[in-house]
Design goal:
There is one protein chain. The protein has 85 residues and is mainly beta. The chain has a single domain (2-84), classed as Sandwich (ATP Synthase, domain 1), CATH 2.60.15. 0% of the residues lie in helices and 64% in strands. Strand 8 (66-71) and strand 9 (74-79) form a beta hairpin. The mean pLDDT is 93.
Length: 85
C-alpha cells in the first residue's frame, strides 16, 4: 500500500509500506494492506512505518496530531507538524 505523510509545509514521507501504526485519539491502531476505508482523528504521538513484513527496522515520525484517510490501499496522514525520530 502507499503512504503519504503531509504537513501544511511539506511532504514528509511518500512510498510503499507494509504497515503503519498510528496514535488515534481513542488509542493506537495499525493499518495493513486492503484495510477498510477509514477517516480518523490522530492525537500527538508516533507514526511508525514498516516497509516489509520481516522488516525489523522501523521509521518513526512524531506528529502533533492530525487526520488519516485510508482508501483503496492508499493511506494519507495530514499532520499538524512532524519531527522525524
Amino acid at each position: 500500500m502507499t503512504l503519504d505523510i503531509l504537513t501544511p509545509e511539506l511532504k514528509v514521507f511518500s512510498g510503499e509500506v507494509y504497515a503503519v501504526n498510528l496514535p488515534g485519539t481513542e488509542g493506537g491502531f495499525e493499518v495493513l494492506e486492503k484495510h477498510a476505508p477509514l477517516v480518523s482523528n490522530l492525537s500527538k504521538g508516533y507514526v511508525t512505518i514498516r516497509k516489509t513484513a520481516k522488516d525489523k527496522d522501523e521509521e518513526k515520525f512524531l506528529i502533533e496530531g492530525g487526520i488519516i484517510e485510508v482508501l483503496n490501499n492508499k493511506v494519507v496522514v495530514l499532520a499538524d507538524a512532524v519531527l522525524k525520530q
